[in-house]
Automatic annotation (TrEMBL), chain A:
<feature type="transmembrane region" description="Helical">
    <location>
        <begin position="141"/>
        <end position="160"/>
    </location>
</feature>
<keyword id="KW-0812">Transmembrane</keyword>
<keyword id="KW-0472">Membrane</keyword>
<feature type="transmembrane region" description="Helical">
    <location>
        <begin position="53"/>
        <end position="75"/>
    </location>
</feature>
<dbReference type="InterPro" id="IPR001851">
    <property type="entry name" value="ABC_transp_permease"/>
</dbReference>
<keyword id="KW-1133">Transmembrane helix</keyword>
<keyword id="KW-1003">Cell membrane</keyword>
<dbReference type="Pfam" id="PF02653">
    <property type="entry name" value="BPD_transp_2"/>
</dbReference>
<feature type="transmembrane region" description="Helical">
    <location>
        <begin position="111"/>
        <end position="129"/>
    </location>
</feature>
TrEMBL record, chain B:
<feature type="compositionally biased region" description="Gly residues">
    <location>
        <begin position="519"/>
        <end position="532"/>
    </location>
</feature>
<dbReference type="InterPro" id="IPR050107">
    <property type="entry name" value="ABC_carbohydrate_import_ATPase"/>
</dbReference>
<dbReference type="InterPro" id="IPR017871">
    <property type="entry name" value="ABC_transporter-like_CS"/>
</dbReference>
<feature type="domain" description="ABC transporter">
    <location>
        <begin position="6"/>
        <end position="241"/>
    </location>
</feature>
<feature type="domain" description="ABC transporter">
    <location>
        <begin position="259"/>
        <end position="506"/>
    </location>
</feature>
<feature type="region of interest" description="Disordered">
    <location>
        <begin position="512"/>
        <end position="538"/>
    </location>
</feature>
<dbReference type="GO" id="GO:0005524">
    <property type="term" value="F:ATP binding"/>
</dbReference>
<dbReference type="InterPro" id="IPR003593">
    <property type="entry name" value="AAA+_ATPase"/>
</dbReference>
<dbReference type="InterPro" id="IPR003439">
    <property type="entry name" value="ABC_transporter-like_ATP-bd"/>
</dbReference>
C-alpha cells in the first residue's frame, strides 16, 4: 500500500474527498434545474450567517460530537457500534428519569451533574450488554446493537406513553423539567458577557462535547487502557499474546461508547427541549457513524466532521424556503456522498496523490 | 513400456533471491505410487505447485504421458488429468458431498441437469475405487477421513489420472491412515498414478513403489522403495555432508527446573490430539532445543506454556505456581511469574504491525514503568525505553517512532527478542527465532540467546531448523505426533538420530509405542498409552 506523509493523509485527502462529494451533489442539483452555486450560498448562509444560525449549527455539532465519538471509540477496538441511536435514547431516559425524580428537591449544582451521570450510565449499560454478548456469547455486535436500537425505541415509547407521560396530556412526552435541571443556553449567557446572540438552542453542553473530545483522545492515546484497546483493534492475536483481557476490554469499550452516545441527551434534553420527547434522537446516532468514518476514528477528526455535519443539517433546512425543487432532504444526499467518498472510497485518490507528490 | 505419467526435467523456480527448486528432475512411471520426501522447506510443495499450475517454473520442461505440456494454471493441469488434494481441505462445510464435488464443474446453468450427471458419476467412481459415500451428507459433519475421500472424488470427477496428495495423513487418525493406504492401493489398481508428498518415512516405506528425496531445493536421490530403507532415506533427507556446527561449551545448569511440565495434553476442536502426555523440564542456564517437523504439536506446546491456552490434561509448574485445567494462567500472569515468550508468528502475535516500534517495545509489559508513570501512558517514556532497547539489541534503523511494519524481518525479530530479554525473564520460550531472518541476522539472534543463557535463564528453543537446534541446545528433545519421542544430551545429538526420531522411526523397540506412523507399528505396542483403537476421536 502506498503511504503518504501525515499532512496529506490526514489533511489533503479528506479535503479532496469532500470536494468530490460536493461536486457530485452540485451535478445533481444542476440536473434538478437549480443553480449549485446558489444552493451553496443558501447552505452557508443558513448554517453560519443568519441570526442564530451559528448557534443552531453548533448545537447540532455538539450532538454529532457525542454520537461520533461513541462510534469512534468502539471502532478503535474494531467494534462496529451501530447502536449509538439506542444508547442515546437510553441516555435520555436516564437523564430525564433522574430529573423527574429529583428536580424538585435538588439544586442545579447537584441535579445537572447527577443527570449527566445518569445519561452516561444508562447509555453505558445499553452499550455494555451487546459488548458482553459479543465477548462471551459470540453474538455479532452489529446485529445486537441494531436490535438494541429497536428495543430502546420500544422502551422509550412505552415509558413515554405510560409511566413517564405528562399527567392529563395526550402527547407522548414528559412534563417540563424544573429550572434546576436545565443547562444554560448561550443566548441567555451571552448578554452577561456583553455579547449579543441570536436565539438558538446552543447551550453549555458544547463545552462538555469539547471536553469529551479531549478526554477520549487522552483515554485512547495516553492511558494503558487505551493502549490495550488499540492493540485489540489492530491485532487481536497480539493483544491476546500481551495478556490483554480481550473480553473485558470489549465490554468496557462498548460501555464507554454507549456512555458517550448517552451524553447526547444532555445536549438535547437538558440543554434544549427541557423535557423528554419521543424521537428526540432524530437519527443522530446513525449520523454518528458517518461522522466517525469521516473523522477517521480520531476525536479531533470527529469534532471537525461533526461541525461539517452540523452545518449541513442546519444550512440544509433553508433549502425548503429558498428552492422549489430541492428540499432539506438534499442534505441526506450530500451526507450520503460524503460517507461514500470519505468512507468507502477514502483510498481512491491515494495513488493519484502519491504520484503527484512523487512518492508512488 | 509406456511413457512415464510425469516427467519433469530441469525444473528451476526462484522466489526473489531464494531458489526453491534447483534443476529438479523427476520421473514417475504410470500407474505407480511415488513418494517425495524432504524436510520443511526442501522444495516439495513448490515442485508440486509447479506441476499443478500454481507457480510457473522459471526453467525446465514438463511432460505428461510422454507429451510436452505447458501448465499455466490449475485449469491446464486439470485438463491434463492432474488432480490435487491439499493438506488443508478446500471444501465448503455446509454443502453436501454432491455439491462439493460439482463445485466449479456444475455443467450448465441449470443445477438439476448437472446434479443428475454428477450423482451418477459419483456412484460409478465410488463403486470403481472403493470410495462409496452418501452424496447427500453434509461435508462439515463428516469425519476427516471421509472429507479426504470427498477431495479425492472431486479430483477423480474432473477426470484426474495423476493424483497429487500433499501430506495426506497429517490430519488423519491412525485408523483412518490405515484405511487410506488401502484406498491408495485401489487407486493404483485402477491405473491412477499417485504422487505422495510427505515427511513421514514410515508412510513412504509402506505405501510407495518409488521414492524421491529432496533437500535444499534439489533432488538428491531417486530410489525404488523395495531397495531402500528408512535409515538411508533419513540420511538422504537430512544430509550428512554438513559438519555439525560448533556448540557452545556446556554450561553447568542449575538442578531445580525453572519450569516443569507433566503429562500435558491438548486436543483441538475436532478432537484431534495435538499434544499427548508431554513432559519437559527447563533448567536455569540451559537451552532445551525442541526439534520436529512443523505441525507436530510444537505450536500448541508453546501456546500452552505461555498461557495462551489452558492445558486440558497435566500441569505446568513455574516457581510455586501449579497451572492446570482447573486453575489456568493467562499470558499476563505467566509474565508476572517470570516467563517471557518470543512467539513463532511475530507478525500476528509478537507485534502490532500498525503501531510504532516504541509501542511494540512495551507489548505485554505495558503495565510496567517502561510505558510511563502509574496511571498514564507516556509516549516519551516508551520511546526512551525503545531507543535503549534498539541500541542494546542492534535494531536498525534506531527509530522508535517508526511503525513496526516498516522494519525488516530480522529487525522486527530483534525488537521482539530484545523486548523479551529486557524483561529479564527466568524462563524464555522461543518459537522459530530465525524464520524469515537473513543470514547475518541469524548469528546476532543466536548470540542474544546464548547471552541470556549465560545469565541463568532457562530457555526452550522450538525450531524446525535442525542446524539451529544443534548450534544452540544443551539438550535436544524431538517431537512427533504430539509427543516427545526422544531426548538427547547435546554430545549425543546427531543429525541422523534426530532425523530418525523426527521421522517417527524408533531407535529402540521400546520406543515403538510412541510412534504414530504405520511403518513403525511395533509388534507389541506395549503399554505406552499410544493412540490405539480406544481413542475417543470419532
Amino acid at each position: 500500500m502506498t503511504r503518504l506523509p501525515a499532512w496529506a493523509d490526514y489533511g489533503l485527502i479528506p479535503v479532496l474527498n469532500l470536494g468530490l462529494a460536493f461536486a457530485v451533489a452540485a451535478l445533481v442539483i444542476a440536473a434538478l434545474g437549480e443553480d449549485p452555486a446558489a444552493a451553496l450560498e443558501v447552505l452557508v448562509a443558513g448554517a453560519f450567517v443568519y441570526e442564530g444560525a451559528l448557534g443552531y449549527t453548533l448545537f447540532y455539532t455538539a450532538s454529532f460530537i457525542f454520537t461520533g465519538l461513541a462510534v469512534a471509540v468502539a471502532f478503535q477496538a474494531r467494534l462496529f457500534n451501530i447502536g449509538a441511536e439506542g444508547q442515546a435514547m437510553l441516555g435520555g431516559l436516564g437523564a430525564a428519569g433522574l430529573c423527574l425524580a429529583f428536580d424538585a428537591v435538588l439544586p442545579a449544582l447537584l441535579m445537572i451533574p447527577l443527570a449527566i451521570a445518569g445519561a452516561a450510565a444508562a447509555g453505558a449499560a445499553w452499550g455494555a450488554v451487546p459488548g458482553w454478548l459479543q465477548a462471551r456469547r459470540g453474538s455479532h455486535i452489529v446485529i445486537t446493537t441494531i436490535m438494541f436500537n429497536f428495543l430502546a425505541s420500544g422502551l422509550v415509547v412505552g415509558l413515554l406513553s405510560g409511566p413517564l407521560m405528562r399527567p392529563g396530556q395526550s402527547n407522548a412526552e414528559t412534563r417540563a423539567l424544573a429550572e434546576s435541571a436545565r443547562i444554560a443556553q448561550w443566548h441567555e449567557i451571552a448578554p452577561l458577557l456583553g455579547l449579543e446572540a441570536g436565539r438558538s438552542p446552543l447551550n453549555l453542553s458544547i463545552l462538555l462535547a469539547v471536553a469529551a473530545c479531549i478526554g477520549v483522545w487522552w483515554l485512547i492515546w495516553r492511558t494503558r487502557w487505551g493502549y490495550a484497546l488499540r492493540c485489540l483493534g489492530l491485532a487481536a492475536p497480539a493483544a491476546e499474546y500481551a495478556g490483554i483481557p480481550v473480553a473485558r476490554i470489549t465490554v468496557q469499550a462498548m460501555a464507554v461508547s454507549g456512555a458517550l452516545a448517552g451524553l447526547m441527551a444532555v445536549n438535547t434534553v437538558l440543554g434544549a427541549q427541557g423535557k423528554l420527547l419521543i424521537n428526540f434522537t432524530a437519527g443522530f446516532g446513525f449520523t454518528g457513524i458517518a461522522v466517525a468514518l469521516m473523522g477517521r476514528g480520531h476525536p479531533f477528526g470527529v469534532a471537525l466532521a461533526a461541525l461539517l455535519f452540523g452545518a449541513l443539517y442546519q444550512g440544509g433546512a433553508e433549502f425548503d424556503f429558498e428552492f422549489a425543487t430541492i428540499t432539506r432532504e438534499m442534505v441526506l444526499l450530500v451526507q450520503g456522498l460524503i460517507v461514500l467518498f470519505t468512507g468507502a472510497l477514502s483510498q481512491m485518490l491515494v495513488p493519484l496523490v502519491a504520484r503527484a507528490l512523487g512518492r508512488a | 513400456m509406456t511413457a512415464p505419467a510425469v516427467r519433469l526435467s530441469g525444473i528451476t523456480k526462484r522466489f526473489g533471491p531464494v531458489v526453491a527448486n534447483d534443476a529438479v528432475d523427476l520421473e514417475i512411471p504410470a500407474g505407480t505410487i511415488h513418494g517425495i520426501i524432504g524436510e520443511n522447506g526442501a522444495g516439495k510443495s513448490t515442485l508440486v505447485s509447479v506441476l499443478y499450475g500454481f507457480h510457473r517454473a522459471d526453467e525446465g520442461r514438463i511432460e505428461i504421458d510422454g507429451r510436452p505440456a505447458e501448465i499455466r494454471d490449475s485449469a491446464d493441469a486439470i485438463a491434463l488429468g492432474i488432480g490435487m488434494v491439499h493438506q488443508h481441505f478446500m471444501l465448503v462445510p455446509n454443502f453436501t458431498v454432491l455439491e462439493n464435488v460439482m463445485l466449479g464443474a456444475e455443467g450448465g446453468w441449470r443445477l438439476a441437469g448437472g446434479a443428475r450427471g454428477a450423482r451418477a458419476a459419483l456412484a460409478r467412481l465410488g463403486a470403481e475405487h472403493g470410495l462409496e459415500i452418501d452424496p447427500e451428507a453434509e461435508v462439515g459433519g463428516l469425519a476427516v477421513g471421509l472429507q479426504q475421500r470427498v477431495e479425492i472424488l472431486k479430483a477423480l470427477f474432473r477426470g484426474a489420472r495423476i493424483l497429487i496428495l500433499d501430506e495426506p495423513t497429517g490430519v488423519l487418525t491412525p485408523e483412518e491412515t490405515t484405511r487410506f493406504f488401502g484406498l491408495l492401493a485401489t487407486l493404483k489398481a485402477r491405473g491412477v498414478t499417485v504422487l505422495l508428498i510427505t515427511h513421514k518415512l514410515g508412510e513412504v516405506m509402506a505405501a510407495t513403489d518409488g521414492v524421491s528425496v529432496m533437500r535444499g531445493g534439489r533432488m538428491v536421490a531417486h530410489r525404488v522403495t523395495a531397495e531402500t530403507g528408512p535409515e538411508e532415506l533419513a540420511r538422504l533427507m537430512m544430509g550428512r555432508d554438513i559438519a555439525a556446527p560448533a556448540r557452545p561449551a556446556a554450561s553447568a545448569p542449575g538442578t531445580a527446573p525453572a519450569l516443569e511440565a507433566r503429562g500435558l495434553g491438548w486436543r483441538d476442536r475436532r478432537g484431534v490430539a495435538c499434544l499427548e502426555a508431554v513432559d519437559l523440564a527447563l533448567r536455569p542456564g540451559e537451552i532445551l532445543g525442541l526439534a520436529g517437523v512443523a505441525g507436530n504439536g510444537q505450536s500448541e506446546l508453546l501456546d500452552l506454556l505461555a498461557g495462551l491456552m489452558p492445558p486440558q490434561a497435566g500441569e505446568i509448574r513455574i516457581g510455586a505456581r501449579r497451572i492446570t485445567a482447573a486453575d489456568p494462567a493467562d499470558p499476563a500472569e505467566m509474565r508476572r511469574l517470570g516467563l517471557a515468550h518470543v512467539p513463532e508468528d511475530r507478525h500476528r502475535r509478537g507485534l502490532v504491525l500498525a503501531m510504532e516500534a516504541a509501542e511494540n517495545a512495551v507489548l505485554g509489559y505495558h503495565h510496567g514503568p517502561q510505558a510511563g508513570p502509574p496511571g498514564r501512558l507516556s509516549p516519551a517514556a516508551m520511546r526512551a525505553h525503545c531507543a535503549r532497547l534498539m541500541a542494546r539489541h542492534g535494531v536498525r534503523p534506531e527509530a522508535p517512532s517508526l511503525r513496526a511494519a516498516a522494519f525488516s524481518g530480522g529487525n522486527q525479530q530483534r525488537l521482539v527478542m530484545g523486548r523479551e530479554i529486557e524483561a529479564d525473564p527466568a524462563v524464555l520460550l522461543i518459537g522459530q527465532p530465525t524464520r524469515g531472518v537473513d543470514i547475518g541476522g541469524i548469528a546476532a539472534l543466536h548470540e542474544q540467546i546464548l547471552g541470556l543463557r549465560a545469565k541463568g535463564c532457562a530457555i526452550l528453543l522450538v525450531s524446525v531448523e535442525l542446524d539451529e537446534i544443534l548450534a544452540l541446545s544443551d539438550r535436544v528433545a524431538v517431537m512427533a505426533a504430539g509427543r516427545i519421542v526422544a531426548e538427547f544430551p547435546c554430545a549425543e545429538a546427531t543429525r541422523e538420530r534426530i532425523g530418525l526420531a523426527m521421522a517417527g522411526i524408533p531407535e529402540t523397540p521400546g520406543a515403538a509405542a510412541a510412534m504414530a506412523g504405520p511403518g513403525a507399528a511395533g509388534p507389541a505396542g506395549g503399554g505406552g498409552g499410544g493412540p490405539g483403537p480406544a481413542d475417543p476421536r470419532h
